[in-house]
Write a structure and sequence with these properties.
Helices cover 72% and strands 0% of the residues. With 69 residues, the protein is mainly α. The N and C termini lie far apart (55 Å).
């Protein structure tokens, strides 16, 4: 059986045109991806803040209202 190897440089050469096309032609997908990342980061930060002793409970509806902005 033939073995296929892929170096970091070759992988980068293969992925780069795909990313360029994504940035050029599908900005909507990139925007959605970045929004998802930011929401996940914000949720993680909020969860860490809840671990502190002086944290007050937050209403679930209030959280979703902030996410819907």
């Amino acid at each position: 059986m033939n073995e296929l190897t892929l170096t970091d440089d070759r992988l980068r050469d293969l992925i780069r045109p795909l990313l360029v096309e994504l940035l050029r032609d599908r900005r909507d997908l990139l925007r959605e991806l970045l929004l998802e990342i930011l929401e996940d980061l914000a949720l993680g930060r909020a969860m860490n803040d809840l671990d502190s002793d002086d944290a007050e409970p937050i209403d679930r509806a209030e959280i979703f209202a902030l996410l819907d902005r």
